Structures are given as C-alpha cells and as structure tokens.
Amino acid sequence: MSQSAAHDAIPWQQAGTLAGLLRERVARSPQRVAYRYFADDAWQTLTWAEVAARVGRFQAALRAERLPPGARVAVMLPNGPDWVCFDLAAAALGLVTVPIYAADRPDNAAYLLEHSGAALLLAQSAEQWSALLPHGYLGALQRVVLASDDADDDRVLSLAHWLPAAGEFAVEWTDGEALASIVYTSGTSGRPKGVMLRHRNMLWNADAAERMSPVTPDDLFLSFLPLSHTLERTVGYYLPMLAGAPVAFGRGIQQLADDLRAVRPTVLVSVPRVFERSAVAIRSAIDARGPAVRWLFERMVDLGWREFEFAQRRASAPLFKALLPVLRARLAQPVLAQLGGRLRMAICGGAALPQDVARLFIGLGLPLLQGYGLTEASPVLTVNTLESNRPDSVGLALPDVELRLGDDGELLARSPGVMLGYWQNADATAAVLDADGWMHTGDLAAERDGHWTITGRLKDIIVLGNGEKVPPTDVEHALMLDPLVHQALLVGEGRPYLAAVLVLHAKPWAELARSLGVDPDAPAALADPAVQKAVLARADAALHAFPGYARLRRVHLTLDEWTETNGLLTATQKARRGKLLEHYAEAIDRLYRK
Predict the structure, then answer these.
(1) Is pLDDT above 70 for 446?
(2) Residue 28 needs a FRET pair 20 to 30 A away by CA distance; which of 132, 270, 442, 448 works?
(3) Strand ranges (DSSP E) for 79-138?
(4) What 3-state DSSP class applies to 383?
(5) Is the pLDDT of residue 5 over 70?
(6) Is the separation of the CB atoms in 245 and 75 below 8 Å?
(7) For residue 60, how many other CB atoms are within 10 A of its CB?
(8) Is the pLDDT of residue 523 over 90?
(9) Where in the sequence of the chain do the CATH 3.30.300.30 domains occur?
(10) Helix axes of 81-92 and 18-28: crossing angle, nearest 10 degrees
(11) What is d(CA 62, CA 71) in angstroms, rounded to the nearest whole number?
(12) Residue 372: phi, psi to the nearest 5?
C-alpha cells in the first residue's frame, strides 16, 4: 500500500461536530482533492482548502441573516459542492439543515418548509421557487436564495448576490449533542415525519460504517443518490470526509452510465434498483450475442460465485478454478468497464437486493455489500463486509449497535445513531422509541451467525426499489375516498414505482365509462387507455397530500368485490394482503411489464 493510501480516518470524537469534521480534514490534507463536479462541459476539482474557503463565504452570508442557533435552514439543490458547503456552514453556526429533494413535488416541499419552520431556503431556480408559492404557508421564510437564477423581490436573492466575496471558515458551534438536521421521511399519517438527528448521530454512524469497510484517501466515490437521502449523506458525504477520500458528484441518474465511465470510482453507494437495471441490460447484451456466449457467460458467473463462496469459507474450491481469470478477462471485464472498471466495493441499501442480482455481480467479480438501516438510525445499523459477506443477509451489526428481537419478532435497535425523535410529533416518537432507548424498526428479522436478515414488516410498509418507504394502508384509504373506488390494494415492494389494484363501484364506473365514450359492459372496457388515464388522474388528486414518490404509475381495474366468502377479507372486513397478492399475482406482474 502506498503512503498516500494509508488509513487516515478522523475519529468522530475528535471532530465533535459536522463542521469540526471539515476543520480536522483541512488540517490534515488541505491540498488533496475533495470534490469533483461537472461544469462548463468539463470535470472540475476543489481541494479541501478551497472547500473550506467556500464554506467560509456561506458562513458569512448565513451569519448576516442573524439567525439564532437552532434556526432551520432548508436546502433544495441537486448534489454538488454548494449543497455540502451550505450544510457545513449551517453546522458551523449551530443552524439546523432541512434537506429537501431537488425534484420533490412542490406541495410536499412547501409542507416541509412550513412544518419545519424554515427561516431560509437555498433553491436551484426561480421556476422551482415559483412552483412552491401556491402551496402551504411560507411566511416563516425570511430569505430565499436561488443558485442559478436572478431574483425578483426583496426576500429573494441570487446566490451570486447573497454570497460575499470572501469569508473565514470557523467552527463557532461546538455542541455535538445539539440538533444538526431534520430529515423528513414517510409517516403513517401520509405526511412525512421530521427525523431529528444530532451532530454526533451522523458522525458516529459515518465512523462506525467506515470501521466496517475501511476507506483510504486513494478511494474515489461517485455520488448520485440525492444528498437528501440519509444513506448518501452519511456514507457518501460525511464518511469520505472522515476518511479523506474524494467524491465526484454525478450529473443525475440519466447520466449515471456516462459518469461511471468518466469518473471510474472505486466505491459506489447505491440502491437495488440501479443494480437491477444494470443486470437487465447486461443479460440483454449477452443474449444478443447468441446462445454459445450466453452459455459461457452463465458458466463464468456460476464459477465466480463458487469462488466467492470458497473465499468466504463456506464451500470447497470450485473445479476448473483456473479458467475463471480467462473467462473474466473475456466476458466480465468489458461489463465491469461500463461501471468504470475500478470498483472495489459497492454498498447497496435502502431496500432488499434480489439474490439473483447479487449473484450476478458477485459472480462477475464485483464486491457487492448489502446493508440495512433507517433514517431514524442515521441511518446504518448493519452491513456486510468484504471479509464476511452473506448476500442473502443485510450483514453484521455496526460497532456499538445493539440489536434484539421483540416478542412479536420485531427488530429493535439501540445505538449512538438513534434519533432524538420526530420534530413536533411526540406521539409518533413515543410509538418508536421506548423508555429504555430501544428503537422499534417495524421490521421483522432473523439472525444467523451474527448476520441479520429482514423477513418482513409489521405494518406491511412498502419499500420501493429506490429505498423510499410508503405505508400502503394510508394510500389505500386516500384512494377509497374517491366515490369511484370501492377497494384498493397498493403494490410496489422492491419495484421501481407504485401501482394498485382497484375494485370499482358499479354505478360510478358506468358513469365514468359513458363520459369517456366507452361501453361499461364491454369485456375490455376496464383496460381501455382512456379509462386508465382518467382513473390515474383521479388517483393523483386523491394522493395530493402524499410525497411525489407515492403517486401511482399504473392500475389494474376490476369490478369483482373482495369478500369474506371468497377469502379475500377477514371476518372483521380487513383485506388479506397476502391472499390478495396471490390472487392478483399475474395482473400485478403485468403492471410492471413494458
């Protein structure tokens, strides 16, 4: 290992606060590259010293707003240096960052601003800001800053105007126990809940995760998940700073393939959906090369998997092991080159990773590590390691994480990363955090040889392929407020989007069909494109109070009622979700076919 690659992680206790982490990093490696980003048709770089200088400018601008410690400041930008600099400047002053997805629905973003009482918003554009105005009460905002546009009133300034020409970075707030961020996540009421995280919550979590899978300054991260996502924020932003590793900010999911090839990262933090899409593309490309290549490719993946199991000491050495380097050079390396060709570790979290996908990439030679966590835990609780990797599990508990099963099989967790509670929601906090400090995850779990597996959820929360969590009962109830909808089943577990099976009331259905010029008694009427479009529009209206990712993309419509007699309802008239999923399995599968 080269001297530059030596382990250089900053102990989280030494950092003290999130801004203290930057202070310690600049002291250790001021001239090393901190960030890469794409601007002016080329990749640009910033050193740690240059980052500190820009944070100082943000700090001076925030200080001029005369906000007291604890005031909330919101950021609604795509990933990039300004997101980081704003967050660190706020931390240095004791302000509380409220991250909002840059592409969030305007009504949901406005709700977050109102609920958090944000005094300042850093947004991307005038268009983005204008879209918020019709939604919610935004009077608490005393300042709006636009990163890429000019302003048109006294309260709104362009970033170029708001930022002073210079400013000194200094850690003015040193209380690591103080609230650092309010991160909104889906709540059982349909409205997001604000998870309150302290400086030490996220610092400890980054440190503990790094101890499980050490990172060096010679590593390079590619950041493409939104920094509003706590997994990306802790593992893809604070952890690299703690370790001294640079981060390249991707241009977005649409440019991910190009960015992977251009940046050539060594570490990637992702969600299952990215690997699922890649797996489909890989197999399609192999299939196009004919049956002989497909057969050889599958033998290589199988041999690579067996070699992995041998390396993990769970199997004997595979036969024909000597062929693996030859097969990988011919078939795997061109595939892995599309991911940059240098990945030594890919961390996957946010939702369950399909085992056939894990087997494919591991068989190709890519170390894929699945983990588990919740925003409420800052977020990581468990992760597999390179030395102890069970792809059918979510891994081992992080250092200082205590895990146990409740009487009903629910996974309970206790760690230095567990949240303070939910912002302005004492009842929800009490339902999750008990008197002994155990956090109730809502997930059912099992443990084998130290490795944990998530087996289900107590309340059937749907986890989409991108890691977003949606409470189905709340969405279903909202849909059934429409007179057209008699019964509803929300689906989307592990899928790229939400869909639903809707049982329609006969009379409103007939009225809708006739208004669209469709015969309601025709066998194909429920699948008519005009009908589908109209029902989806009504569903959008019914779900207007939910986050953007909770909208429906497709629906299966039926007039066949669920009853106790046909076994689809309980005696108390509750939907038998498992039975319904079995009953509509084929129809649901069609909802996700192109």
Answers:
(1) yes
(2) 270
(3) 96-99, 120-123
(4) strand
(5) no
(6) no
(7) 17
(8) no
(9) 471-591
(10) 110
(11) 11
(12) -150, 145
Give residue-wise pLDDT tens across range 28-84.
999 999 999 999 999 999 999 999 999 999 999 999 999 999 999 999 999 999 999
Nearest CA to 401 out of 386, 418, 384 is that of 418
At residue 569, what is the residue type?
L
CATH of domain 19-29+49-174: 3.40.50.980
The confidence score (pLDDT) of residue 571 equals 46
The pLDDT tens digits for 228-268 are 999 999 999 999 999 999 999 999 888 999 999 999 999 99
Which amino acid type is present at position 128? Q
Task: Indicate where the chain has its CATH 3.40.50.980 domain(s).
Answer: 19-29+49-174
- Residue pair 573/564 in contact (Cβ under 8 Å)? The answer is yes
Q: How far is C-alpha 296 from the geometric centre of its chain's CA atoms?
A: 35
Determine the average pLDDT of the residues in 171-189.
86
Task: With a cut of 80, say whether residue 191 has pLDDT above it.
Answer: no
- What is the three-class DSSP state of 164? coil
Does residue 491 sit in helix, strand or coil?
strand
Output the six-digit token pair for 500.
């639903």
Lowest mean pLDDT among 278-282, 344-348, 559-563: 278-282
Degrees, nearest 5: CA angle 18-21-27: 150
What DSSP string describes 566-591?
TTSB-TTS-B-HHHHHHHTHHHHHHH
Task: Provide the token pair at 574.
Answer: 């509750």
Q: Fill in the DSSP letter of residue 284.
A: H
Quick one: which H or E segment has residue 346?
A: strand 345-348
**Domain 471-591 fold:** GMP Synthetase; Chain A, domain 3 (3.30.300)
DSSP state at residue 4: G
- Reading the block at residue 27, the tokens are 């002291």
DSSP code per residue over 501-522: EEEEPHHHHHHHHHHTT--TTS
- Cα 403 to the center of its chain, rounded Å: 22
Q: Whole-model pTM above 0.85?
A: no
Which of 400, 436, 433 minimizes the C-alpha distance to 204?
A: 400
CA–CA gap between residue 32 and residue 490 (Å, rounded): 49
What gap in Å lies between CA 370 and CA 352, rounded to an integer?
Answer: 8
**Are the C-beta atoms of 303 and 327 separated by less than 8 Å?**
yes
Task: Report the first-to-last Cα separation within the chain, whole angstroms.
Answer: 48
What residues contact residue 534 under an 8 Å CB cut-off, 6+ apart?
Answer: 512, 516
SS (H, E, C) 421-441: EECCCHHHHHHHECCCCCEEE
How big is the CA angle at 127 (ends 124 and 131), to the nearest 5 degrees?
Answer: 110
CB-based contact 143:95 (threshold 8 Å): no
Which ranges in 264-417 belong to alpha helices (H)?
272-287, 291-311, 324-327, 333-337, 355-364
Q: For position 468, what pLDDT does the model report?
A: 86
